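User: Quick one: structure for sequence A, then sequence B.

Assistant: Sequence A:
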Amino acid sequence: MDTLTLTRPDDWHLHLRDGEALRAVVAATARQFARAIVMPNLKPPVTTVAQATAYRDRILAALRETAGDEPACSGFEPLMTLYLTDRTPPDEVRRARESGVVHAVKLYPAGATTNSDAGVTSMAAVRATLEAMQAVDLPLLIHGEVVDPGVDVFDREKVFIDTVLESLRRDFPALRIVFEHITTREAAQWVAAAPAATTGATITAHHLLYERNALFKGGIRPHWYCLPVLKRETHRRALLDAATSGDPRFFLGTDSAPHARHLKEMACGCAGCYTAPHAIELYAAAFDSVGRLDRLEGFASHHGPDFYRLSRNAQRVTVRRETWTVPEALPFGAGSIVPLAAGEPLGWRLAS
């Protein structure tokens, strides 16, 4: 198969940042996807419907400014989320459900990843808010890692399943949950065994294509560093099996996370892989690696909107077999940003 035409895909987990960074990256996503669930971990975080609406307006304004009337970007729709804190009131959840703008609430364990310091410190603190979400059928998106420094970084997802997710599913059986950017065999198994009507999971292209040795190939490579971190090959294989299985619980979420080059290549080494400009090509390479290109449309274009109870996109896009080289760097405001797999060949390309 040298060409594949599929329903235009959506990105169900995306970071766009704000200000100058937003203007640098938003068009890249709009060229690839019709819609995207936009993460709320700005500084300060997006915690109210009013803030989410204002952020949506800034996203669309930035897209108009940078893409103009470019046909590939026309009609892009940002789907907004709220940042769950220990103090998020149940009334805000109800306002979110009625808004038509906010489509989910994001749970970050406090300190788990970039800009998560205002996140949840105790599940008991958000119980009333979760009850309201279940009542109004507003999905909960979960960064599923414990933050206990005594837990090995490679085990934090598994421990989260055992200590948080199991009780959350038991206590809130009707709450729709998306286990975000899963990275382990245990996570894939947990999702596959959970009720399909109320459980989904996003999987990134980088966790399908790379295992943890990629971080150290030829020396430390900060542009492969993300949270949750890349895992062993056995986990990558399990994720690839899940993504290509046709199971509707699994769908595309890039977790594309832009950081300026100098912030990635410094002592703190910000976590996040930038994949927005070539996301669908990366996913096509992953599915092609196991001979399952026929399953890409379901994963990229059908399962996500079905879970969120939105209509599938009417437009179609085509990817074709073509070898090209990922740019070494791209403009990012006054500086530059390094995309994942910079300087490396890719075997698929989105047709313009």
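Sequence B:
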Amino acid sequence: MTPNTNSTMPTAVIIYTDGGCIGNPGPGGYAAILRFGSHEKEVVGRFRQTTNNRMELRAAIAALEALTRPCRVELFTDSSYLRNGITKWVYGWQRNGWRTGSKQPVKNQDLWQRLLAVIARHQPAGSVQWHWTKGHAGDPANERADQLANQAARSVTDADPIDVEGTS
């Protein structure tokens, strides 16, 4: 998706993401819906063995990677793990050598680092705004992302890749 990023245009790319698994871990899928003006794009992926949290992270990464140039983004997720991780925890983890407050290794470090790298493409800082939305509460875009992620998880085959920590 290539939005017009003319600085006089205040419109942002609106993104809704979701990810999930059948079992946790288990077959998983993720989805993102990107909207810019009248344009819409859906991004979907699946893995035969993964976790819910990895699918939530992959949805956001895939959505931001689908943007072909820096732009302002409003990203909506029903994952507290994703939103809190990127807005509250990740910079502390970096300062602590990718360790939690209890000195344990950060789970999904590979994907957190990849997410930070793709966010850095959208400058100035703060160009990506993170919003939490309640899942299964009737928001049509959130419901659609959930539907697409679940369809992806249900359609996993033996040919699909495995997504475990450190394999991204």
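Strands lie at 13-21, 26-36, 39-50, 73-77, 128-132. The CA atoms of residues 57 and 111 lie 7 Å apart.

User: Thanks, that's what I needed.
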